[in-house]
Fold:
Amino acid sequence: MIDCHVHLIALPDSSNGCYVSPRMLRRLFVRILAWIRGFDLSNPAAANFAYLDLLFRELDRSRKVKRLVLLAMDGVYDPSGGLDISKTDFLLSNDYVLQVARYAPGSFLAGVSINPQRRDALAELDRCAEQGAVLVKILPNAQCFDPFDPRYRPFYKALARHGIPLLSHTGYEFSLIGKDQSAGEPARLRTALEEGVTVIAAHACSYGLGFPEPNFKTFQEMALRYPNFYADTSALTLPNRVRTLFLLRRHPDLHDRLIFGTDYPLPVLSYPALGSGYRKIARVVSPFDRQALVLESLGIQCRDFSSLKKLN
Ligand SMILES: [Zn+2]
Structure:
């Protein structure tokens, strides 16, 4: 299987084109995460290599997942389409993702990120498609644009022409500094769907604030209306999104629209499998396998990313 939602993480070095804002680096959770994983924030090259090494080891110990779609993260753009670095917390460059995927094509696939607001969005899409990108990831809440905006139709048309799926974050966004959360509403993906893009709503459209779950009805309606609408299973074992996992269990009609993904390095928890092998799943070391086993134990089938996109 392929995990369609894995974050590539890198600190800026002299050549990788990445950026992390000083305020992001100061944040406590970033420091704690680095400390837990044993990454040295003062040595970018070593930390970046250590993260790649960790991904290889995670793949090695997984029985179910053999390839990862690694996601880039574009920044915030000003009204004239130029990068606004003062509003960008974190930028993981397309060049770095493409380079890593080229280095180990049997393990990694490039999920680039293009903010459609950027002046050169179409040219960047052509360039990334030519270099083998299999997916475009957007995070409208943090990238500060409204995916519903009809001005992005040419960008969506080009995505459809290239046959590259669009993976969009949906729901509330915690991990980056708070922006307009309404940009994460799944209904705002309609413009891309109308242009024929294969759209994957991350986290199965879940709102991300626990109970209740206002977006599930939208997921059902959009799945009925658009045959090109899919959703990934990433982050669904986290307490703030688990309600959607239990709703999906009761709606096998939607399983055909689910694509396997985890949101690694976010944790995959085994408690949703309670009563059906929870203890056994908790002992499984690979987070990818844990995610697959939790889904299986709940009777939730999902598709592999390769059913949406022809891969080499
Ligand atoms: Zn994610």
User: Anything to note?
Assistant: The chain has twelve helices and ten strands. Residues 5, 7, 234, 263 surround zinc ion (CB under 6 Å). The longest helix spans residues 44-61. The chain has a mean pLDDT of 92.
